[in-house]
Design brief:
Rossmann fold, single chain, alpha+beta, elongated, 2 domains
């Protein structure tokens, strides 16, 4: 079903478009033409009723609705079932307001996300309350979700609203409406609202994830207790970075990749060095002890005074199936504003060298 981005509450504008469509389907934009002609769910909800579209009361044939630009529009002729009936004005304003509410969740839902581990109330946003748009649950129960969303379910807009609240105002916040590429925004809509990004983990995956996070947290806890006061840019709060990199590297290996060049900021670098690049704990601890700064770590010439969380390294990541991937973490020395072009340059050299 075609999605129409209702951005206002002006139902009169939609009504005028439909009346124009009834007179001449080619006179309205293509998206609206498809919306008016394809919306079975709208008709079933009573938003569109099978009344006459032409002057004599006969509905316009499908060929006329889809006539190409520049082609003559066939005369209206009776058909057994109308494809584009008239709009029921009683429910159309509700649909327009519901569309605005859905868009409000996409734009402002992160303001209701429960992100504080201490349980404080999120800031919220006035547009996330249906009453802001003059909507009630009873009204939303009357409209199928498929009127406004690409869905095969028979749930109502009220049920959809509850699902959108779980998606956009749950323990994870999503903020992407600022993106200028409409295809990227649509991608987020499709994956988040259909919840295709959520998969149930197998027991073995859960155990692995627990063990991995325990390793990550264990290193950070040890460094904090043993070297209290030394700056290290802990990964705490972003512990999932390491398992996420595990997944990326393993997927790469399954697809035949054998080398990774990566750059990152300071936070979490020591944990990535240990658990992704494969640098031994002892090598990292020597940095805290002020020992010899050589070995696996890529360290500048003596006398530069750079710090441990700027260093890069080369190592080998071994996947569970025995594949080996070379990992290069690019150094991020003091006063290097952006490491991205350095990563791109090193990657291009590797590609050129084969």
């Amino acid at each position: 079903m075609t999605k129409i981005p209702f951005d206002s509450l002006n139902a009169g504008y939609v009504q005028a478009l439909y009346e124009e469509f009834a007179r001449n389907p080619r006179a309205v934009p293509e998206a609206w033409r498809r919306f008016f002609s394809e919306s079975e769910a709208v008709r079933e909800a009573g938003l569109l009723t099978p009344e006459a579209l032409s002057a004599n009361g006969a509905p316009v044939a499908a060929e006329a609705e889809r006539a190409p630009e520049g082609a003559a529009v066939p005369e209206a002729r009776p058909v057994e079932e109308a494809r584009a009936p008239t709009v029921g004005e009683d429910l159309l304003p509700i649909v327009a307001r519901a569309a605005a509410l859905i868009q409000a969740y996409r734009e402002h839902g992160h303001n209701l996300a429960r992100l504080d581990p201490l349980g404080s109330d999120p800031p919220g946003h006035p547009q996330l309350d249906p009453s802001f748009f003059g909507l009630s649950v009873d009204e939303l129960e009357r409209i199928p979700a498929s009127v406004l969303l690409d869905t095969d379910t028979d749930e109502s807009l009220a049920e959809t609203l509850r699902r959108l609240e779980e998606t956009y105002a749950g323990p994870i916040a999503y903020e992407f409406e600022h993106l200028e590429d409409p295809e990227k925004v649509q991608w987020f809509w499709d994956h988040l609202e259909k919840r295709s990004h959520l998969t149930e983990l197998e027991e073995e995956e859960k155990r692995w994830l627990l063990e991995r996070l325990t390793e990550v947290e264990g290193l950070e806890g040890f460094l904090h207790r043993s070297y209290l006061g030394q700056k290290r840019f802990s990964v705490e709060g972003s512990d999932m970075l390491v398992p996420m990199l595990d997944v990326v590297v393993r997927d790469l290996a399954r697809k035949g990749g054998r080398a990774v060049v990566m750059g990152m900021a300071h936070r979490g670098r020591l944990n990535v060095l240990a658990h992704i690049v494969g640098i031994e704990y002892g090598e990292i601890l020597r940095e805290f002890e002020g020992g010899k700064k050589r070995g696996a770590l890529s360290v500048p010439e003596p006398g530069t005074g750079d710090v441990k969380y700027h260093h890069g390294a080369d190592g080998t990541y071994e996947t569970p199936d025995g594949s080996r991937v070379r990992i290069t973490l690019v150094p991020n020395p003091s006063h290097l504003e952006f490491v991205n072009p350095v990563v791109e340059g090193m990657t291009r050299v590797r590609q050129f060298e084969g």
